[in-house]
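Summary for the lay section of the report: proteins are chains of building blocks that fold into shapes. Here we show the chain for Threonine synthase and then a coded description of the shape we predicted for it.
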Amino acid sequence: MKEIYTSTRNSSKAFTPKQAILKGIADDGGLYVYDGLDNLRLPLEDMMQMDYMQMAETILHMLLPDFSDEEVKRCVNDAYAGKFRNEDITPLHMVDDEAILELFHGPTCAFKDVGLRMLPQLMRVSLETHTDENVMILTATSGDTGKAALEGFKDVPRTGITVFYPDAGVSNIQKLQMVTTTGNNTCVCAIKGNFDDAQSNVKKIFNNQALSDELAKQHVTLSSANSINIGRLIPQIVYYIFAYKEMVKNNKIKFGEEINYCVPTGNYGNVLAGYYAKCMGLPVHKFIVASNANNVLFDFLKDGVYDRNRPFYKTISPSMDILISSNLERLLYYKSGKDAAYIASLMKDLETKGSYQVKEEIFESVKADFTGGYCDDEACAQAIKEMYEQHGYVMDPHTAVAYKVMKDYEKEDSEHKCVLLSTASPYKFAPAVYEAIFGKGDEDEFACMKQLEEKTGAQIPAPLKELSTMEIRHNALVDKDDMEAFVQKTVEEMFHD
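The coded shape description reads as follows.
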């Protein structure tokens, strides 16, 4: 048994990959990390000849060594084969000279599909060695994770899933995607609060030992589908390598040449997956972290102080409306020389004071790999308009934030080619996109989607088009302090009724 994963806050106890995936978050509140990450080396030259699914198998073998060859192959096939609208899974789209990695061709039209098609497969295989256990997946979402997780875990045996989302903090399309979800093991609940409230309370539920003990008597374990679960994060490494291969294949770069990636970021999971790829040998010069008006990450990358004590803004890029970026904890663990006690103290400061400052040497190491930028709603709308008018390409607001930040950074670095990660279909945010390009559209969201399609020629993805006729199945709304009681009730109904 390969016990290679430890907590960011306590490295004295090790777990197998399967154990880490099933638990999701460590008992001490830390996140699972692979200590030997910097000893792994990608077979990069060989991977330049692989398709996406072969790359995925290679990455899973490297980071999940307790999965057999047959298990890995089954997981990859069940996750991806025939499940994405493009056979490349995450195609690299050249818009004139701009390289855009489209991550939204999965069932829910957002980048979360890449990880959340895979995680349920990994969890199902992991459960096979725990014969009497059931798993309740708890997830907080700022919009996209929720639906992707619901679709991934829908009707998976011995699992249930409960998704919490901020009642007024997602787009109407994102909400409809969630509340129309079918399946006998799915539950969706709005909370009176923002995403950070949802995320913080989900973590508190995980860390409630009395609740865990009570659920254990019922043979139920809690786990997570957020990128705090290492089984969700690992599959996202693949598309960074795939993008690099496509850049080489299209003669945009030579093999071995360093490139930049610009990533719209809220919870830091997406960009962290790229950092994992770099640690394993992918030639990356800089990761450009793009934030909206909730620019806590921009400020951190500027001065080494993480401070969530600031106004919370609701923006037209709602999936980035986050002030607590959980996955930054994993990055700081590696950058601190794997000093779990130090990370535990930083996270305690974040919890009690709402801020922390990292040591100068850690900050300098972070800056060697990451830089940041941000833009407000006005600049975001302008970026959408510019991209359409200059290139005929329609971007969603999150991608537009990254595009603006990328263009700003190019003034500092014109030497390295950059790949822009596009994280969602523009049709998930049709009113904001339409207004940015053409002015105010129809107030009805679906009519507005149709207007956008007619004027731009960009097709509405089928999973979004059919939402208007689907039955609403989930109407729950609770106060943020009542989430634990809601989970207990849901476990009872789902596994014992």
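Put simply, here is one thing we learned. The longest helix spans residues 112-127.
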